[in-house]
Amino acid sequence: MPSTGYPLRTMAQIASDRRATVLFTAFEPSGDAHAAPVIAALAQRDPSVRIAAWGGPRMRAAGAEMLGITAEDGAMGLAGIAKIGLVRRVRAAAVAWSRENAVTVHVPVDSPAANFPVVRALRPLGVKTVHLVAPQLWAWGGWRIRKLRRRTDLVLCLLPFEQEWFRSRGVPAAFIGHPVMERQLDAARLDADALRLPSGSPRIAMLPGSRSQELHANLRSLVETFARLRQSHGKAVCVLVAANENLRQLAQQIVPAMPSGMHVQVGGLDAVLHWCDLALNVSGTVSLDVALHAKPMVGVYRISAPSLAVSRLLLRSPVRLLPNIIAGRKIVPEFVPTTAGPEAFAAAADSLIRDSHAADEARAALRLVAQLFVGHDSGFEAAALIDHVCRGGSTAAMVLDSVVSAARPSQATAHGKASP
Predict the structure, then answer these.
(1) What is the pTM of this model?
(2) In which band, very low, low, confident or very high, does the pLDDT at 312 lie, cut at 50, 70 and 90?
(3) Which CATH superfamily is 11-182+374-415 part of?
(4) Residues 6 or more apart whose Cβ sits within 8 Å of residue 188
């Protein structure tokens, strides 16, 4: 096996421990993506560990022993009663499987509403809990911190400020970086790929999300936003990136007749972001993809008026789009959540197109956001911390910091990582 630049446990250390069993549970495609590199790194770090999972195809490819598929692509996502039924079935199955297989650590991946019932059921069995992706209690639901404190041994944080937020409230936590932000981009390859994309100006990337619900909520408004921009900028072109073929078909069902200048493709996100001048995107992880490329963006997420009224009571963060949250201020326009529509979105985008100074300021601020993640490898740092908890290690802040520091790659290795 080629060297990775990361410390691996010796065969003597592995032999001295009883075989650990780690159980992952993921209920969304994003959770499948977050868990896969951690599973691969954990298996490399300690080949004796048994890794089982309810999750998706990426977790399977990473080497997990799959107990069920619960995180298929976004177009097939479940909601409402169907999702509640799935969670109940997984919870019961996880308890039975954990009793039979002596699970050491449970790693719930994101999706707290789905994962917390599983956590609650496994804790009485003596199973330790390491949350992969911190619940966003800092944004809303801060009163739930006591419940989290009772039901976790460690929270693995993907955003820089989260570590101190949780630690200051008595919850062991460690910042491990974010898999999107630590990718290294191949500029030469992206230059070549961009040559195959449409010509025109301004060049707009449209990113409507990786879940069917996101497309239903936002796609019509985003397409109309581009149509309005096209009226003001007659040579404007847009590439809509669908995360997979199912979502491409869904996009065509939602908007059967796309406006002139709009193109739809499956995948190729990095090439489109390299090519574009501006992104129109939903809130969520994709906003970090845009930030990595330091491209100005307008972030949106439309909801109903009653839902907006409730969100105003619950949400505590003054900004809601991830790059703005990380920066601690509004560095790009956001409408998250909102009942506004294409007129407002197009006005914000048009301002960035026409005001080169504002666009340059946004790019510079996004580069500073990206710097906060430099040097991290979230997969290996998460694997080291899960292994540490498996072996009964302390979760005192200084100890966690030491484990993360030891797991971080050398700068040469970090800068040599290529984007997938």
Answers:
(1) 0.89
(2) confident
(3) Glycogen Phosphorylase B; (3.40.50.2000)
(4) none
